[in-house]
Amino acid sequence: MDRDSIGILFRAAVEGDDAAAWKSLVEGLSPLVWSVVRAHGLRDADAQEVYQTTWFRLAQNLTRIREPDRVGAWLASTARNECIKVIRAARRVSPSGDPEMFDRVVDDRTPEQALIDSEDAERERERARAAWQAFQELGESCQRLLRLLTTSPPFSYQEVSATLGIAVGSIGPIRQRCLRRLRGLMGKRGFQ
């Protein structure tokens, strides 16, 4: 398709609202647009998108085309620019090998609430650290008893009795003394 026939078809399509001229123009220039798009090595979906966007841009700019015989050059330039936009946008995307990253919940808390929550979490960590230190100061027998009673699922009193060699009836009172001692050690660290 030469430049003169392109200009004639373009004028007929735009000024005469000639559907047959539009069809001929699109059929005649589509190979040019596709050649530009394919030269940029886009994925098929992106190439289709650029092809359609190029023709859409022409429809948007019909009244701004000053040289109808150069519509082919205008389409090629527009297709190239649209390809570059797609390539640049793809560079900004950083795909991750971690599929769970996309499933993470977006934090919609206010900055103040996030700060309060982080301070609460820090207090809980300090409390857990103090509890663990206090637990390590308990005697060996208290540590063993509390460990058995806090397992999941917990040991029955009969199992604790068999494991530690203490009477079933003594387990509750010993447990109370151990917990009281643990609370006292926590209190020395400033925790209730």
Structure description:
With 192 residues, this protein is mainly α. It has eight helices and no strands. The chain starts with a helix and ends with a helix.
Dominant shape: rod-shaped
Helix/strand-derived category reads mainly alpha
Q: In percent, how much strand structure appears in the residues? A: under 5%
User: Share of helix among residues?
Assistant: over 70%
Distance between the termini: 88 Å
Q: What is the ordering of alpha helices and beta strands?
A: HHHHHHHH
Biggest beta sheet attributes = none
Layout of strands and helices, then pairs:
Blueprint lengths: L2 H13 L3 H21 L4 H17 L10 H22 L18 H27 L2 H10 L7 H8 L3 H21 L4
Features:
192 residues; rod-shaped; mainly alpha
Brief sketch in words of this structure:
With 192 residues, this protein is an all-alpha fold. It has helices spanning 3-15, 19-39, 44-60, 71-92, 111-137, 140-149, 157-164, 168-188. The model has no long low-confidence stretch (mean pLDDT 87).
